[in-house]
Design brief:
mainly alpha, 76% helix
């Protein structure tokens, strides 16, 4: 009944013809197709096309069934990252927090850790922010950042240590900031 629509939808998705993939897959869903695979592809297609609200709706449908997949399945492993990203892009930061926290348990992606740390800072959860940023500066994906941004992370960690009263650790990270970016005036001033 809807198998050919799903097949064509997946084929279109793989060929990055996302509008056509959405058309086929939505028709399949309208005819009764239910699958986390369909929902994840629809969500990813909508997210890529910039329709974040609809993407989050399909991620929510997938979430209900994602637990039935094997623990090692890519969709299950990365679901929280996908959902968090779509919610953040839709400016739903509070709703994204549980997904970010779950994603951070298994991922060392810089973007996850940095956004999570920023949310902890805004909530005045200094210890969680510091610990998350300490992981972020170790993330392999941090190498893609320019030195000024990396120095900014070290500066933030240094400031968090100051807030905790840990001056030796603060100086250590402020020094890293000035070594990474010798022009970092804020770190230099705090080191005085």
């Amino acid at each position: 009944r809807f198998d050919s629509l799903v097949e064509e939808g997946f084929r279109s998705y793989d060929a990055t013809n996302l509008t056509q993939a959405i058309d086929f897959l939505q028709k399949a869903v309208a005819q009764g197709a239910t699958s986390p695979f369909i929902y994840m592809k629809l969500a990813a297609a909508y997210e890529y096309l910039g329709n974040f609200y609809t993407a989050t709706q399909y991620y929510r449908l997938a979430e209900k069934e994602i637990a039935t997949l094997p623990d090692t399945h890519d969709y299950r492993v990365h679901f929280n990252e996908h959902m968090a990203r779509a919610l953040i892009k839709n400016n739903q930061f509070d709703e994204a927090m549980p997904y970010l926290e779950k994603a951070a348990q298994t991922s060392d992606e810089y973007w996850i850790l940095s956004i999570l740390a920023d949310r902890y800072i805004k909530a005045n959860n200094i210890t969680a922010a510091r610990d998350t940023l300490l992981r972020a500066v170790q993330a392999p994906s941090i190498q893609a950042l320019n030195p000024k941004d990396i120095a900014g992370l070290y500066l933030t960690i240094g400031k968090l240590y100051v807030n905790e009263g840990n001056i030796p650790e603060s100086k250590r990270y402020l020094t890293y900031a000035t070594q990474t970016d010798p022009e970092n005036k804020a770190a230099k001033e705090l080191l005085r």
